[in-house]
Amino acid sequence: MKSVVLQVEGMTCGHCKSAVEGAALSVDGVKQAAVDLAANTVSVEMDEQVDVNLVKQEIEDQGYDVN
């Protein structure tokens, strides 16, 4: 299991939180995603073989910028 923290720009509310967490969790092998709105981050726990770029792409597809 590996953990990453991604900086996500554009999140402002509970809907944003749900959208970003849902996008991350839609990637096979992602076990947990938790948004921190105050810090503009999402913490993601995933299996070792998951490509973090897939997670980033799913979040960006929801309209957020991931750094």
UniProtKB/TrEMBL annotation:
Record's SUPFAM superfamilies? HMA, heavy metal-associated domain
User: Which Gene3D superfamilies does the UniProt entry name for this protein?
Assistant: 3.30.70.100
Print the keywords alphabetically: Metal-binding
Using the record for this protein, list the coiled-coil segments as residue ranges, or answer none: none
Q: Does the keyword Metal-binding apply?
A: yes
* Domain of life where this protein originates: Bacteria
**Residue span(s) of domain HMA:** 2-67
Question: Any idea which GO molecular function terms this record carries?
Answer: copper ion binding
What processes does the entry annotate via GO biological process terms? copper ion transport
Tell me the protein's name.
Answer: Heavy-metal-associated domain-containing protein
